Amino acid sequence: MSSQKYPTRKLGGEDVSAIGLGCMGMSFAYTSFGGYDDKASAETEFLKTARELGVKIVAYSPLGRGFLTGTIQSRDDLDPSDNRINHPRFAEGHFQENLKLVNTLSEVASKKGCTPSQLALAWVLAQGDDFLPIPGTKRVKYLLENAEATNIKLSKEEEANIRKAIDSVGGTKGERYPAAMMAKCFGDSPEQ
């Protein structure tokens, strides 16, 4: 393995590796079912630029930090020391609203004959061959379950129905990360 370091730039005094349009490069945090729309935004411009450059999109945390598995039905399901408690999508004001989306998608998964996790991953994979979901897990059982998502094919109609389900509850509520982390997303730095 090469010890060569990938080029970085400064953003807010910290080294970052290529997270904005002007710094196109190594990674992109994209959460599945995150209020995706076709209107221009930093995220959709990023996707357009990545595709123009032939850069793959790494779908980080495509299960919404476990939310989209359908197993977290209450904030009480999380250990008090669990860092997700600090994430806006798990916050008191947003949790119940986001749970509506999870439950709606769980119903779609049930009709499809798969788990909510598999549906979420199949949806990410359906966005194009340039999307690479990287779900995290601590258990082999879930690794095998997640891998089965590659065998689930969504028709254009099913994709449209999933988008309608997302729209029916108004998409996700709350930012992806706490404010300090969000400030580092989709940023560019001046050329050095």
TrEMBL record:
Gene3D superfamilies: NADP-dependent oxidoreductase domain (3.20.20.100)
Signal sequence region: none
Keyword Oxidoreductase: yes
Domain of life where this protein originates: Eukaryota
Alphabetical list of Pfam families matching this protein: Aldo_ket_red
Keywords noted in UniProt: Oxidoreductase
InterPro entries for this protein: Aldo-Keto_reductase, NAD(P)_OxRdtase_dom_sf, NADP_OxRdtase_dom
Residue span(s) of domain NADP-dependent oxidoreductase: 41-166
Protein's UniProt name: NADP-dependent oxidoreductase domain-containing protein
